[in-house]
Each structure stands twice: as structure tokens, then as C-alpha cells.
């Protein structure tokens, strides 16, 4: 490497995450690649006449790889006005009246949820009345506009989630006292006389009320999705994320938005999208897998910025919600994928078909690994899947003996530590100490040699929050530690949010480490994520993010 070829030298605490776990001082970049890594003095000798040198006191790490991000949702949160920090029904009504004043008569007023962003925990629990406003109350604030206060996505918050509509909004959606929800798990609240109150209570993941009951409420347009993705990308770059793996699957509408941005050269995040299929039956699935999904086989197709490969197939699920999701697959609400419902026999049939067509399966396990394993083992006996990198997504907990069975199948696992440990950790308090340690079991999977990567689930989007949850294992309401033995080392927490994600997109030889030949995807943090105590990780800031050697956030 001649010194004239070096574009940029960065110095700081360089955490390489190479096999030896080397920590050093400097990294040299030429074009989109890392070309040299080593001691500051030695690397600075490579400086040529046009080499830029950035000296920082921060820590330089491989950029974060968010292995389950729902990234597109982040930018949609700005699409509708916020209600602000409301504390009573009167506060809500004042805000709605203000919006009505600024909105032409007859046009929709759609707002973000009641509750405190970004989580909206408990929804109306923040209001003095501890309930949502009724349609009569909303009518008083906006008699001439249809009004819809959206629910949060169940993934940001906790179920149940609440929607509130005024009388005009109910009418435009054809809802009256005779209406019943076509989807189980959605409740239309009624008053003592049996009339609708305008409040809709959702008990499903992902939220189905908008899709199934509220077709007249303005939905996200293709332009909203593209603009939202660009806002999302900026927000994720600002916390140091350089790659995203969307293993929960993306609906055609979402894939199209990413594809448009990629074609225009506007996509900077490195994305791997898994296909969320729209089939209604196993027969339709067979045709789609054979005739239409050839592009998604194996590692998929694409380039270093956008790659599409693999399919998501749900295990279990509410059939009425899945039916509603297919009425108009472009109407997704906050979700980015199409809801599935497959019983175990259907799931096995779909897995067999997928294996036949070399389509790797992604499925959300939560606590069902014990039911999925025998199915995967039967599929494996018929079609060797051990090198196909199938993925169990969003796993909450499993028995140690079940985790070990994943190894022979070559299956990788994504975990959402901030969700299962910090956000809903109380659900696992009744378990024995040994079983508590197996909630979000990154340490155990890593020790078994099972590929494991962590995601943020967009709740919140900062990977440092996920790393805090992995290392401290503290539950949010009590501060109690959930299975101290399940804590990860600082090194594993960092690796699970960076290097490990590359395996899931077949890119472990080009990204996730700071090594010559690897892509120059880097994050510069204000402090060291290995020596900062777990509790304090979120105090670190991301000073700069580089993708392929170019700054996408900060410019130090
Ligand atoms: Zn998710």
C-alpha cells in the first residue's frame, strides 16, 4: 500500500474485534476499505499528501449491526403530530382543538398516541382520568373533522394499545353499534347503552385495528415510507449503526421503498431485507417459492448496500388477524411485515418447501423453540439445512438442552435483550434462578458456538441500550437483576451488536471487524464500551459514523 493511496487515518482507541481481540491506536482507510490497522506512529507513517487525519480521544469500533431493527418505523413517528406531554383529557382535547383550528374543515386529524414517547407505556395511564377520551369528548374539540388518535405499535409499548376516534371518524369507517371486530383480540369499547365509545383496544402483535377496522384513516403512502426511511437512516446512523438485518421480514411495500431509495443512490445504511410473503395458503406458497422467490434463495441478491434474501414464515398466530392483513398488503399500519398464522402442520409443510427451494427460513420463536426444534430436525433429515443459516428470531427464553440442539442445525438466533430483560423482565420473575438466566441467553448461545446477534426492535433504537440490558440484566420497574448468571461480558455485548450480525447476511468476511480488507464501516464513541460500566453505557455518545470510509454522521 503506497502512502498516496490512503484517504483517511483515524486515531483513537481502536477495538478491532478481530480473532485475537486486538486493541490498538489507528486505522487507515483507502476507498471504502480498511487497509491498515496498528499503532498510531506506525500508521501515521502511511500518511500521504492528500491523506486526511482525524485524531480522536474516543473509541473506534466496527459500526453497529442491528440484527432486528424495524428501522423503517422510526421515521414514520414524525409523520403525524404529537399530542405532547398530556396529563388529562382536557390536555388532549386542547391539543385536538388546536389541530382542528389549523386543519381545513372535513380533513382528517391523525395524531401520535396518548402516553409518553418513545414507549407510550400504559397509554392513557398518564392521564388523570386513566382512560382515553370518548367520541363525544373528541367531538367537542373537533366537531367538523374526523379525528383518530393512533395506537402505538405494540413493539414500542406494551399491550393493550388504544386508539380513539370521534363520531365522524367512526362514521367514515362504517362503524356503529352493530359493528363487531373481524379480528380476535380487538375490542370495540361500548358504553352502558351499547353505543361505541370510539375507543378501540388492541391485544395483537403487530397492531391490526387500523388494517381491519379503520380503512378510512389515512395510511402511509409510498412517499411517506421513503421519506420515513431516510429519517430513520439518519437516526440510526446518529447512534453508530451502519448495518441493519430485518429478519422479521419486510412486506412488498417496504421492500419497494428501500429499492427505490437504493436505485436513486439515496440509501446509505447497509440493509439486508428478508421477504415477508403475501400467500394465503400452502398451495399459493408452493407456487410463489418455485416461480417468484428464486431471487431470495441462498444468500439472496443485491450489493453491499441493499441485499434481499430469505423468507419469514410465522409459527402460530391469530388466523383472523392474518386474514385481515392480506385484504390490502400495502396497508401495514406501524408494521413492516405481513401478519402470518400457521399451525404446526402448515409451518412444517412451508419449511419443507422452503428447504427444497433453498429459501432460508426466519421465524419468530419467543418461547416456542421447544416446538420448533422437532420440526427443523425433521426438515434437516430430508434436506440438509446445516449450511443454509436459518434464523430463529426474537427468542425470549429456552431450555439449555434446546439451545444445544441448534448447533447441529446450523441455525442462528437473534435476541432483543432490551425488550425481554429490561422492558418485560417481570414476566420471567416467577422462573427459577437457573431459568431466569436463560432469558435472552446470549452468553449461553455464544458459549455453545451458536451464532447469536442482538437487535433493538426499534424500542429504543440505540444499540447501547441493548448492550446495557445484556450486561446489567436489570428490569426497568424494579431495578431487579434477572438471572445474574446470564450477564454477558462487555466484549460479547459489543460483539453481539456489531461483528456477529454479519454472519446473518453471509458477510462475515467483509464486515464487523476492523481489519485490512474489511469495509470501512466504523463508529466513533465518546468513551470505551468495554471499560464503561454497563449501567453507564447510554451516557456514551456517537461522535461519528462512517460507512465505506464516508462520514454519514458527525464529522470530527
Ligand atoms: Zn420485532
Radius of gyration: 24 Å
Q: How many domains?
A: 3
CATH topology of the largest domain: TIM Barrel
Largest sheet properties: 9 strands, mixed
DSSP strand (E) fraction? 15-25%
- Give the termini separation: 25 Å
Ligands in the structure? zinc ion
Helices, strands, pairings?
Layout: E1 8-15, E2 23-30, E3 33-38, H1 40-44, E4 52-62, E5 64-66, H2 71-76, H3 89-102, E6 109-111, H4 135-141, E7 147-149, E8 161-165, H5 167-172, E9 186-190, E10 196-202, H6 209-213, H7 222-237, E11 241-250, H8 252-263, E12 270-275, H9 282-292, E13 301-302, E14 306-312, H10 319-325, H11 344-356, E15 361-366, H12 369-382, E16 391-395, H13 400-409, E17 412-415, H14 417-423, H15 433-436, H16 442-448, E18 452-454, H17 463-472, H18 490-496, E19 522-525, E20 542-547, E21 550-553
Parallel strand pairs: 1-4, 5-11, 6-7, 11-12, 12-14, 14-15, 15-16, 16-17, 17-18
Antiparallel strand pairs: 1-2, 2-3, 4-19, 7-8, 8-10, 9-10, 13-14, 19-20, 20-21
Helix pairs in contact: 3-4, 7-8, 9-11, 11-12, 12-13, 14-17, 17-18
This protein binds zinc ion.
Keywords for this entry:
nine-stranded mixed beta sheet; globular; seven-stranded mixed beta sheet; 556 residues; 18 helices; alpha/beta; 3 domains; Urease, subunit C, domain 1; binds zinc ion; TIM Barrel
